[in-house]
Amino acid sequence: MGLYDITVQDMTGSGVSLSEYKGKVLLIVNTATGCGFTPQYAGLQKLYDAYREKGLEILDFPCNQFAGQAPGTIVEIDSFCTLNYGTTFPRFAKIKVNGKEESPLYTFLKQHGENPGARIKWNFTKFLIDREGNVVKRFAPADTPESIEKDVAALL
Q: Active site includes 35?
């Protein structure tokens, strides 16, 4: 199974095939609105503004698995991010990134790239995907959008 074979849920619960993103460079991020890294939303939006026209998509997956830092409904989370950080990149339904109920997306992401099988340690772990759907690099939560810009730009 490849990345483009995976279907995720949008904010309304409808299925979205990741094949819709074929040919794009993707930055996939598990996020939270009540996390110390939440201000990274601003940097993610700057990256999106700078590189969207060149083929970048940022896919935001809120995750409440780490200290309950993504409380509320997806509508509340979306409103928070839009009002506080002006985010315009795609946001999806809440998911689990570890454990028995983890999303197939995160099973795939964790099996590929650097350190295969390693658990997601916290919110704002980022995966950079090339235009062919390959995991190129995994970034830790403390890696800011600004610090990974050169890696993103290199794929575009």
A: yes
